[in-house]
User: Fold this.
Amino acid sequence: MSSVAVVRVERDAELALIIVDSPPVNTIDGTVRAGLSSAVREVAADATVRGMLLLCEGRTFFSGADMAEFSGPPREEEYRRLFNAIEAAPIPVVAAMHGTVLGGGLEIALACHYRVAAPATRLGMPEVTLGIIPGAGGTQRLPRLMGAEHALNLMLSAKPVDAAEAQKLGFVDSIISGDLRSGALGYLRELLVAGGSVRKTCDMSIPAATATIDVFERAARQARKLYPNRRAGLVAIEAVRAATQMPFAAGLEYETRRVNECKQSTESKAAVHAFFAERATRHIPDLPDGVQGRPVALAGVIGAGTMGGGIAICFANAGIAVTLLDADAAALERGLANIERTYQSMVDRGRLDAAGKAQRLTRIRPSLDYRDLAAADVVIEAAFEDMALKQAIFRQLDTAAKPGAVLATNTSTLDIEQIAAATGRPGDVIGMHFFSPANVMPLLEVVRTTKTSATAIRTVMHVAKALRKTPVLAKVCYGFIGNRMMEGYAREAGRMVLEGATPRAVDSALEGWGMAMGILGVFDMAGIDVGVNVHTANAHRYPPDPTYYQADFALHEAGRLGQKNGKGYYRYEPGNRTRIDDPEALSILRARARKLQVPEREHSEQEILERCLYPLLNEGLRILEEGVALRASDIDVVWTAGYGFPRYRGGPMFYADTIGLPTLLAGMEKYRESFGPMHWQPAPLLVQLVEQGRTLAQWESQSGPGR
Ligand code: NAD
Assistant:
């Protein structure tokens, strides 16, 4: 698209409007910058123009910079020239904002002389969450407009504020209700009548009271707390400090140098990787191009328990009517009551109004009769985890569902090929593996069997979008992508507590490294009994290791079920999820370790991390080699979206390349020496890539299964 098409200049008597229309969200890419530059030049040179208005069409004012440019050559110089040209215009320039104005989108507005916004506008600077700092003048202009303290807050919290808050803070001058264009033109005219003139942000000074040593120290504490293991927050603080100490132009140079330094950091590369990885999951290279998904207007969910209720909420939230069916009237009642409670808590927290709640509830239609599923376009089964039961359900579905309906199962551990074989239409059967709580967790593993049709896959990928889920395609195997990789990670955590590490030591090491929650705390939350049931049902799959998941079994046998009864790896006060160290748990674990003759061992933090993470990464390489996942970045999405893996480390496969495959291989070999080959056999792909001196990223771009 040419720059002429995305940026145009219109006149309204003595005023000029620079209007940008670059769908979908007016990202400031190279084309937009070029168009803006020439438009600003044209308007500034026109002696008949008395004021300039900058506004965008479509859903939002500039949403931000172009992430695709992050990995290319630095663009700050180009941004700076453009923004300086806007600021240097000889006539007042007003930015008229609406929508979600983030990062570079807000920075361009800061370079204008005045800012107005529609009431629902949200404005923020989320750069530090991407491992960078605002690099187009944001760290220099924002403190000049609102003082250093508030500017630091906005950058470090990374949370957008609404227009009213922005006005209070001082970087929005007026809120325009009604039509933004005419309201903003009116604002500009009044300004001119009142003698308002050019007001350059760069000429403002930062009030000293907002930039005390105290303020900067507090900000540094906040940055360390919010962003452990990361640097960008601290760099942002240094850039704001520079704004208080240097002339504007020098401050901009400093900011440029620091943002480019940030872009080279692993934390930034990882965050950018995670961003694009999430967008790549819907691309499925082996599906024929022309295959479309079927529209989904009506859904069915079987089983009104924990998962079924959450899944029904997802559909209702997406505006899709859903029949919620249970075999048991009392269970159905309970399920509906849980759904009502979930919505009520959203109302209580101000996330939904009473009318919204009522509307969503009407979309959920309870039923005890499979015939009510006859019109559903997709049915998701979320009944008990039992093969015979699920096969019986799918046989009934085969009779009840209309031809072409997608028949999905939410199973975590059962073989979907066998479930599909219970129907006369295996091409329509697929796994839709939601994570608990299903209405909250963004991940959806989509599991194809050898018979699943391309149409069924596409339909589910589309419906995932409507449900606001991030779908990742996997092939059938035990545990799919996420739980299969979890196996070794959790196994080692449990084994280390048998060797004498405390649950606290294991969890703290993992959390200090960045996992959202240590795995033993996760077990307590999910229920030790839930894990034990899975281990028992699948014992035949496990290697002949007598210590295998024995920490779980020992606690379970002692009646410790986790948070639900106040004791598991930790103990809990009633109504409180705080993990308290519990000597009783330790003595149960010690006793089991003695019985199994597990040798005691000292565990450094490094060892805890290596022993949990290396098997996880190693299994990821097996999954890739087997083609269970389409691409390494899909594995990264599974773990960042579903398992609390830190986004700033990019995901497990990105992390494998970060530490280097030779390090991973050496680690696997080191523990194979200590513990034997049963659990520590390096993946063939790992050995091969190390021999070839290649990274995972190189392998994937050259020969990976996703190509
Ligand atoms: P749950 O026990 O909370 O709910 C199961 C519901 O299914 C019950 O209400 C039960 O009455 C109903 N049901 C049983 N047989 C039925 C039948 N023939 N027809 C209709 N309804 C029937 O179970 P859950 O935790 O929601 O798990 C459901 C499924 O989701 C299981 O396959 C489980 O493995 C899987 N899963 C669970 C989680 C989780 O964290 N709980 C996560 C992912 C997947």
Residues 605-626 form the longest helix (22 residues). Residues 317 and 707 are 35 Å apart (CA to CA).
